[in-house]
Amino acid sequence: MHAMAEPAYLKNPELKKIKKLRKEASNLKSAKKLTFQRLKKNKIAMFGLTMIILLLFIAVFAPWIAPHDPIEPNLGKRFLSPCKEYPMGTDDLGRCVLSRIIYGARVSLQVSMTVVGIIAVIGVTLGLISGYFGGTLDELIMRFVDIVLAFPGIILAMAVAGALGPGLFNVMLALALVSWTGFARVVRSSVMAVKEKEFVESARALGCSDMYIMTRHILPNVITPVLVLATLDMGFIILAASSLSFLGLGAQPPIPDWGSMLNNGRAFMRTAPFLTIFPGIAITTAVMAFNFLGDGLRDALDPRPQRELKK
Amino acid sequence: MVLMFIVILGVTMLTFLIMHFTPGDPAEMIALARHGAESLTPENIERIRVEEGLDAPVHIQYIRWLQHLLHGDLGCSLINGEPVLSEILDRFPATLKLAVASMFIALIIAIPLGIITASKQYSLFDNLSMMGAMVGVSMPGFWFALLLIHLFALHLGWFPVCGSGSFEHIVLPALTLGTGMAAVLTRFTRSNMLDALRQDYIRTARAKGLTEKLITVKHALKNALIPVITVIGIQFGRILEGSVIVETIFAWPGIGKLLVDSIYSRDFAMIQGGVLFVAIIFVLVNLFVDISYTCLDPRIRYEESR
Question: Residues B91, B273: contact at Cβ < 8 Å?
Fold first, then answer.
C-alpha cells in the first residue's frame, strides 16, 4: 500500500521537525527493538559479535581454511619457526600450528555450546521451580546450590573428570555439573520478582495450571538475564575447559585443542616459544569476544545512564 | 550456623560418592602404590580390601569416615601412608603465603586504578585500563603464568622458573594470581565508585565547595568500598581455585598442588581430607565476609538495632 501523500502544511520547512518526530514515534516499536538499537550502537559489543561470527565461520569451514593437516605428524618438519609456509610454525610432531588452532576452534565452540546449553536447561528449570514454588522445595534446591558452590569449581571439575577419566565428554560433564548454579540463582530471583505481578495472579484466577503459568507467562519474562549469562558463560567455559585440558584431563592427543596445545608447548618453551604464545592468544581472543558481547547485552538490556559526571 | 554444617556435610558426601563411583579398583591401586606391581595377586588385593574397609557398602564406609573425623582422624594417605591431616597442615602455610601475596598485588593495582578510572571516566587512561582489565579477565591464568615465566625467568633471568624457598620464588606465582584478580577487582571498584559518585550526597558535597580530592577519598570511596570488600572476601576463596593451577605450574608446595597430585594418584583419603579442608575454608571466609559486611555498613547496623 502506498504511503499517504504528505499533507500540504507539512511541506513547510519549519514543520519539518514535526515530520521527524512523527517518524521517530513510529520507530519506537517495542522494548525488543529498543534493545537491539542500543546494542547496535555499542561498538565494542558489535566488535565482539563480529569476532564470534568469525569464530563460528572458522570452526565450520575449518577443513577448507586450514592450510595443512592438523593431525598427521610430519617428523621431518618439527619445531619450524613461523614462516611463509607455516605462519605459526610447527609443533613437536611437525604439525602446522595454525591449522591446529583453526581446528581447535571447533573443539572449543563445541564444548562451550554443549555445556552452556546443558547448564542453561538445568539451571533455568531448577530456578523456575525453586522461585515459583518456594517453601521447602526452594530451600532444598538452594542448599544444594550452596553445596555445589562450596567447592572450588576447578577442583570439583577435576575430581569428576579425574574420576571418570580423561576425554572431552567427561570434561563437558564435569563442567556442566559445576556451572549450572549461576543460571539457577539468576532465574530464581527473576522469578520471585515476576511471580508477584498481576498478570500471574490473573492467570491463576483463570485456572491456569502451574506448568502453564511457568512456561507461558513467567519464563519469557525472566529470559533476558539468562541470555546475558549464557553469553558470558560461553567465554567462561572456554577458559575452564582449556584449564582442564592444560592439566591433561580434556581433549586427548591427537585432537587439536587450545589448552592441550599449551600443555604440550610448555616443555619446549626455551626452544619454541611460539608453541605457547599462539594458542593462548586464540583462547584470550575468543573469551574476550564473548565478554564484549555479554557486557554489551547486559548494558543494552538494562541501561544505566552513564552520563558524563557534571562538574 | 547449622546451615554451614549441612553444606560441609553435603560437600563431603558428594566427594565420597564421586570417589566411590570412580572406575577402577581402589584396593588394586593401593597395592600397586604400596608394594609395586608384583604384589598384584588376588589374595593381596582382597587382604587390602578388608584391611582398609573397602568391602563395606558405601554408606557404611562414609559413616566410618565420619566417625574417624569426629576423633580428629582424617585417615592416612593411601599412597605414602602419612596422616592426611598433617600433610594438609604442612602444605597450608605455603598456599596461605601465596594467597596473601596475590591479594596484596591485586589490591595495590585494583583499588587505585578503580578510583582513578572512575573519577576520570571516558578518558584515555580509563579506556586503556578497561581494555587491560578485559584482557586480564579473558586471559587463561596458566597462559599468563607461562608468559611471565618466558619473559622474566627464561629471557631476563630475574626470577626462578619454579620451586619455593626465597622471596624471588613467590614473585611470579603471586603476579599470576594477583593480576587475574586485579582485573576483576578493578572493574568492580570502578563501577561501584561510579555509582557512589552519582549519589546525591556527592552533589551536596560539591555544592558545599569541597575539593574533588576530598570528595573522592572521604565520601565516595568509603561507600564504594563496602561491596568491594565483600567481593574481596569472595575472591579470596577463589584464590584457592587459581592456586591449583598456579601451584602446579610453579611447583609451589601448597594445598592446590596436593589436591591435584592426589586426584591424579587416586588417593581417596587425601582427596576427601583435602576437599573437606578447602570447603571449610570457603565457608569460613564467606562467614567472615558476611560478618564484616554487617560491621562496615552502619546502615545495616542501625537497621538491626531497631
Answer: no
